[in-house]
Amino acid sequence: MVAIVTLAVAALASLFMAWAIGAGSSGSTPFAPAVGANAISVMRAGFVVGLLGLAGAFLQGANVTEAVGSELVVGGSLSPTAAIVALATAAALVAVGVFAGYPIATAFTVTGAVVGSGLALGLGPAWPKYVEIASLWLLTPFIGGGIAFATAKLLRNERVPESVAVPALAFLVGILLANIEFVILGPGSTGRSIASAVTRAVVGEAATGTPVLAGTAVATLAFAGFFAGLLRLDLNRDEAAGQRHFLLALGGLVAFSAGGSQVGLALGPLIPLLEQGNVDIALPVLLFAGGIGLLAGSWTGAPRMIKALSQDYSSLGPRRSIAALIPSFAIAQSAVFFGVPVSFNEIIVSAIIGSGYAAGGAGVSRQKMLYTVLAWLGSLALALGVSFGGFLLVDALL
To answer: How far, in Å, CA of 176 to CA of 172, rounded?
Structure first.
């Protein structure tokens, strides 16, 4: 009976965490540039991002979920009490950020809370994983901001017509999209990419070597060319409408990627609890439940953060918004592929700032940037400390 009650409390804490993430990073960041460019309203953005986040959680959430659940500490797994303390600490801090209007980095908060509880429990630090995570976190502002800066400069270059530059960017996005793995396209927990699935359908499952590589390359180029060609036709009909459509498509891809990454931050600590309690719940079912939590958060709490990101950081137009979303999509999918918890607030804010500086820094709030960085660092340290102390306190009382 006690075990059932403990698991129920942990599940509620996980659901609240999923809500907080949906209201914060996964719900607010993907469409913030599109809202800033007046391509979609705040309320409609919150509605759409919730649905796409649910889809991403279900189809791509396994890697990060397993990493958060088993790779942040070594020497054992989190106890039910440690998991509850970690989830409650992280969810509370993220919720405070949502209601205060500041983008608390969810990945920083959850990672700090899980590590804090694990160390207080007597488990060891997973240094190789920390190096991997820290490397991504440190490189994200430079890579995302740098790519956004270069892309925005390209789109502002009068010598390069937009009818050429925008479809070329769409071609690159198409290459990435063709090689993203979807669980429904193949066997196993990771599935297959569109290019790989098409290739296997043509050359057969048993084929290896050159036919597979050549087929994948041809399928990738064909898919990317089709994607770019459609956009070129759209731009020829109405250039402004074509830009908006591309911007909304990018926002949708980032929203999908956000669901695939962020759901693991809420569900990861539950994995060892289910294993210890011999509770047989299929991972896809768990991912869908977590996606529902993201959906609820996006629909009820995301609009406030969407407004904060779209209006407070930079006055965005369609070009700078496109420039911000392309690296955001690429970095997000890289994190999903490697199973690294990543902060979508860090990704999108860095890209927004990079695209803003391409226009001379117009509209970029340096004060807001400083507060945001301090909030990120503070959330990591605070989550680790509160979770560590909270577990010791609860454990002593019990």
So the answer is: 7
Encoded amino acid at 121, one letter: L
Smallest CA-to-CA distance from 152 within 390, 362, 380 is with: 362
- Sequence-separated (6 or more) residues with CB below 8 Å from residue 172: 224, 326
* Cα–Cα distance measured from residue 159 to residue 67, given in angstroms and rounded to the nearest whole number: 46
Dist CA 7 CA 83 (whole Å): 10
CA distance 261 to 328: 13
Closest by Cα among 228, 266, 211, 241 to 26: 266
Structure tokens at 277: 């309690």
- For the entire predicted model, the pTM comes to 0.86
In angstroms, the CA 40 to CA 46 distance is: 10
Paired tokens of 90: 């992280």
Rounded to whole angstroms, the Cα distance separating 48 from 254 reads 12
Separation between Cα atoms, residue 202 and residue 278, nearest integer Å: 42
Q: What is the pLDDT along the chain (398 residues), one digit of tens a residue?
A: 556 777 777 788 888 888 888 887 677 778 877 787 777 888 888 889 999 999 999 988 888 888 888 889 998 888 888 888 888 888 788 777 767 756 567 888 899 999 999 999 999 999 999 998 989 888 998 999 999 999 988 888 888 888 889 999 999 999 999 998 887 877 765 578 999 999 988 888 877 778 889 999 999 999 999 999 999 999 999 888 888 889 899 989 999 998 998 899 889 888 877 776 666 777 888 899 999 999 998 888 787 777 766 665 445 677 888 888 899 999 999 888 888 888 877 887 788 888 878 766 555 566 767 777 777 788 889 899 999 999 999 888 87
Q: Where are the beta strands (DSSP E) in the chain?
A: 73-74, 124-125, 181-182, 192-193
Neighbouring residues of 12: CB distance < 8 A, sequence distance ≥ 6: none
Contact (Cβ atoms closer than 8 angstroms) between residue 147 and residue 354: yes
CB-CB contact of 312 with 364 (8 Å): no
